[in-house]
Amino acid sequence: MEIFAAMARHGYEQVSMCHDKVTGLRAIIAIHDTTLGPALGGCRMWRYASEDAAITDALRLARGMTYKSAVAGLNLGGGKAVIIGDPLKDKSEALLRAFGRFVESLQGRYYTAEDVGTGTDDMEIIRQETRFVKGTLGKGGSGDPSPATARGVLRGIEACAEQVWGTAQLRGRTVAIQGMGNVGLNLARYLHEAGASLIVTDIYPDKADKAAKEFGAAVVSPEEILSQQCDILAPCALGAILNAETIPLLKCLVVAGSANNQLATEGDGQALERRGILYAPDYVVNAGGVINVAYEFYGFDSERACRHVDRIRDNVKTVFRLAKERGIPTYQAADLMAEQRIEMIGRLHQTYLPKTD
Ligand code: NAD
C-alpha cells in the first residue's frame, strides 16, 4: 500500500505503526487532523484479513472522527487506533498495556476510547499506562456512550420530521429500527416515549422480542426490515446498508440512524435524493456518544453533555439548509459544514497568543 499517497489524498497528519516485541502487539494509530484539538477516536480490535485492510480501516475511521467532531462543535480532531487480532482470543492485559504505552508516547496528540472489540474494562487497563484515554468508568468517566448516541439520533429524527412534515412531533409516526443493540434499544425507548409506533428487528430474535414486550413494537425478520412501510428508517446495526440493492426497496420518507458509514458509495446518497428520501448524514446524527465522551475533558457533567447532544437537532437542520442553498445532497452538505468549521477555527488559531505561565 502507498501509505504516503493515501495520507496526502485526504490530508492525514500522522500514522504510527506500533509493534511490541514482548506481546506481539500490532497496532496502527492514525491521526487525521488536529486543527480543532487533540485527535479522539476509539480503539478497534479486529481480525483483519491483511495489514492493508487494517491500515485502510484506521485511515477511514480517523478521518470520519475529524468530520464527526467538527460538525458536533467539539474542539477535537480525528484519530483512530486499530489493533490487529481476535478480541476473544488475543486480548490480554499485557497487550492492552503495550498499546497504552504507545498512546502515551504520542503525548496527547491522540486520545483513545472504546470501540468494536474493546470496552470500558479494557480502557481501565490501558489507563494504567497512559493519561490519554477517555470513556472510562467511575469518577470523572462518562461510561457507556450508547444512551447519549440514542438521544442524539432522536434529536436528528426530530429535525427530519420538522423538515418533512413541518413538526418535530413523532406521535403517530412509524419508525423501523434495524438492530436492537445498545443504541437501537435505547432509541426504541425514546421513540416509544415520544408516541411513535415501532417496527424492529435483530439477528438475535430475543433482542427484538425484548422491544416488542417493552414498547409494543412489531417484530419482523432482518430480511424484511428495509422494505417495511414506515415514515422513518433508523439503521442501527451495520454500515453500507444503503446501496444499489437496498435503496429501491425502501418505503420510507426519512433515513436517520446510528450506524456508521450507512452509504455504501457516494452515489447512493444521490440515489436516495432521487427517490425523494431525506437522508440525515450518519456522523451528524450519531455524534451523541463522542459528545458525551468529550465532556470528560472539562470534568464530566452529564447535564451539560445532554444539552450539547440535544444540539444535534440544530446541526441536522443546518445540514438541510446548506444542502438546499447549495443544491447538493445532504451527505455533501455535512462534509462542507465540517470543512468550513475546521477552516474557520484553524484561521483563528493563527493569531499568536503569548504563554502566560
Ligand atoms: P451493538 O453491537 O450493541 O448493536 C448492533 C445490533 O445490530 C446487535 O444487536 C446485532 O445483533 C444487530 N445486527 C447486526 N446485524 C444485523 C442485521 N443484519 N439485521 C438486524 N440486526 C443486526 O452496537 P451499538 O453500539 O448499538 O451500535 C450500533 C451502530 O451504531 C453501529 O454501527 C455502531 O458503529 C454505531 N454507533 C454506535 C455508537 C455507540 O455509542 N454505541 C456511536 C456511534 C455509532
Question: Overview of this structure, please?
Answer:
- With 357 residues, this protein is α/β, with parallel strands linked by helices.
- The protein has helices at 3-10, 51-71, 93-105, 120-126, 146-165, 182-193, 205-215, 266-274, 282-285, 288-294, 302-310, 312-326, 330-348; strands spanning 14-19, 26-33, 39-40, 43-46, 77-84, 110-111, 174-178, 197-201, 218-219, 232-235, 254-255, 278-279.
- β8, α7 (205-215) and β9 (218-219) form a beta-alpha-beta unit.
- α10 packs antiparallel against α11 (302-310) and α12 (312-326) crosses α13.
- Residues 145-146, 149, 178-184, 201-204, 207, 222, 236-238, 258-260, 286, 289 line the site of nicotinamide-adenine-dinucleotide.
List the defining traits of the structure above:
357 residues; alpha/beta; 6-stranded parallel sheet; binds nicotinamide-adenine-dinucleotide
In whole angstroms, the N-to-C terminal distance is 45 Å
Low-pLDDT runs of 5+ residues are: none
Bound molecules: nicotinamide-adenine-dinucleotide
What overall geometry do the principal axes of the alpha carbons give? globular
User: What percent of the residues sit in helical stretches (DSSP H or I)?
Assistant: 40-55%
Beta-strand residue fraction: 5-15%
Structural category is alpha/beta
Largest sheet: 6 strands, mixed
| Secondary-structure element order, N to C | HEEEEHEHEHHEHEHEEEHEHHHHH
Determine Rg (CA atoms, Å): 20 Å
